Amino acid sequence: QSQTVDIPQTLKDALRKFRFARRSSGSAAMVVKIKKAELIMEEVEQFDSISPEELAEELPENSPRYVLLSYELEHSDGRKSYPLVLINWAPTSSEIGLLTLHASALLNFQNTADVAKIIEVRDGPESLTKTAIDSKLLS
């Protein structure tokens, strides 16, 4: 009973465009959800110059999302880089069927978005902070 979730071409194009956008300051995010009835993914919205804390406020408390994050990372020597990170927003309070579907499609989304690093967020805004992301990316 493995259901596959389709990633429409329009979303693939949007992901590609997001990935290749030139960033010179701040973090940007693209939020994607699964439409359970149709078994397709769709873009919810994009944010420019958003902090992880602000992003956490925008995400639903009881529903999983994939978040493609172009993250402004400050290195100890003062350099800045903009790594692409996939935030797997999967609150434990989400409907179990949706969480299962979300988990089963994660790898396909990761491959399509062409992003290497995944950060799992299961307990809501507390673990989506600059400190949390920095510690995962700088370790």
Explain this structure.
33% of the residues lie in helices and 27% in strands. The chain is of the alpha+beta class. The strands form two sheets. Strands 2-1-3-6-7 form a five-stranded mixed β-sheet, with helices on one face. A two-stranded antiparallel sheet has the order 4-5. A hairpin with a 4-residue loop joins strand 1 and strand 2 (40-47). The protein is globular, with a radius of gyration of 15 Å.
How is the largest sheet built, in terms of strand order? 2-1-3-6-7
Shape: globular
Instruction: Provide a count of the helices.
Output: 4
User: How much helix, percentage-wise, in residues?
Assistant: 25-40%
C-alpha termini separation: 39 Å
**Strand composition percent:** 25-35%
Helices and strands, in N-to-C order?
A: HEEHEEEEHEH
Which stretches of 5+ consecutive residues score pLDDT under 50?
none
Mean pLDDT: 93
> For the report, how would you describe the main beta sheet?
5 strands, mixed
Rg result: 15 Å
Q: How many distinct beta strands?
A: 7
Q: What structural class do helix, strand and pairing data support?
A: alpha+beta
